[in-house]
Amino acid sequence: MNNFWRNKKVIVTGANGFLGSHLTITLLKKGARVTGIIKVSPKYTYLNAALKELSNPKLKIIKSDIVNLKAVRKIFKAFKPDICLHVAAQPIVGLANKSPLPTFKANIEGTWNILEATREFKMKALVVASTDKAYGEHKKLPYAEDAALLALHPYDSSKACADILTRCYAHTYGLNTAVTRCANIYGPGDLNFSRIIPDTIRSAIFLGKNPIIRSDGTPLRDYVYIDDIVNGYLLLAEYLYIGKVKAGEIFNFGTGKPVSVLGLVRNILQAAGREDLKPVILSKIKIKGEIDKQYLSICKARRTLGWKPRLFLSHGLAITIDWYKQYFNTLFK
Known about the structure:
This protein is of the alpha/beta class.
């Protein structure tokens, strides 16, 4: 058994978010000592629910804002982390479009604060979350890590900036950092119902309504299950720490198997046993500015980390739907 994570001191930013919750829970199960930085404390998070069954003295949650450099420095100085997984972000595209400045502060300034604290306290490894959205639109598919970052919208651009800053700190200051660019992540605990998978599942199993597709249904996207992404992050952090990955490297994590938006919704309805419901397509033409095809090459992650996705979409959706059924039943008892 690999005991790499046992007693490693790890900071997880955004520890009660969708990805942060899963990372935190997995790290605790592997014996790590985790300090989670959170900005807000909603009544329900996937992490809170898990901690009712997973009582762990190795977890400390700190309510703070990574935009505050003084607060970030204080946390790093007190905890003296070995590794940081920086996944905190303002992730909602609609909010970013309506009001970009808070997104820029959270995703760009928040990242440079984490980078500065890493530099000051000489932490051994830092993994920073970018996104496949940072690539923007390219004719050549799938997107490999050496593709240019052509992001043109607020959320996408904010992550591209964080991406570039991370590599800047690696190459200029020698920080032992790496960047992840993930496809669309789904799975238990995602309560952002502006995303297509949670929204479609809610429509199908809770509301009993025909799911709405805001585009013409043809855009191709890649959807990867949360456990596969967690595995990728932890592998990358470990390899970075022990020197098997060079500072400043970038890794795509996805499935390499894109599906159309309409195809995804139909898969969800089938997995939920609600094929009587029919997708409602709002637009018969392509939405202006929407990228038509976007999916990733995962050759580098396979070659360097030995990583590959383990769950097919059908299996991942089945597990995810079962979780939402339990969530809605518990929520509205």
